[in-house]
Design a protein that fits this description.
This protein has 159 residues and is an alpha+beta fold. Helices cover 19% and strands 38% of the residues. Strand 10 and strand 11 form a beta hairpin.
């Protein structure tokens, strides 16, 4: 599912109304999507910049397209962040917690990478949540997740 094709980028939208219409429209356009089951309104799209701009024009009254304020374009999600999300997405039955991004303390500390196990390759910051040390991963400016407990020996520091 992850594709590093130079022409394709990941973008996020929040479906504010007519979710079924949006999903059907995007499917007919042949655009790859990914979702987090617990966040029904958040949708990730894998497409070209011109395709996302066309979608924004077509769906402006049904979806919020997260934009880069400086360039006033739809904001791209970096490939390394999306790669992490795609590693996490299949494990929605695991105790993965979805967190608000408005608490900056979630993102302070040493950055770590998981070296092995089902979350190998995921990067983030270690924080204690519900009594366990968890890796906090920021997916976009609007979403973050906390993995289940990951033992220290499975982590490495990121410079």
């Amino acid at each position: 599912m992850y594709n590093s094709n130079d022409n394709l980028r990941w973008f996020a939208i929040r479906m504010i109304r007519d979710r079924k219409y949006i999903l059907r429209y995007i499917e007919l356009e042949g655009i790859e999507t990914s979702r987090i089951n617990d966040i029904r309104t958040l949708l990730f799209l894998h497409c070209k910049q011109n395709e996302i701009e066309t979608l924004r024009g077509e769906l402006w009254d049904r979806a919020l397209f997260y934009r880069d304020a400086a360039r006033k374009r739809v904001q791209q999600i970096p490939d390394n962040v999306m790669k992490t999300f795609l590693i996490l997405a299949p494990y929605h039955d695991e105790p993965v917690f979805y967190l608000p991004v408005d608490d900056p303390s979630f993102f302070e500390g040493k950055h770590k990478r998981v070296r092995s196990g089902i979350f190998a390759g995921c990067e983030g910051v270690i924080k204690r949540i519900k009594g366990e040390r968890r890796l906090i991963i920021r997916i976009s400016d609007r979403a973050a997740v906390a993995t289940p407990y990951i033992p220290q020996d499975m982590l490495e520091d990121i410079e």
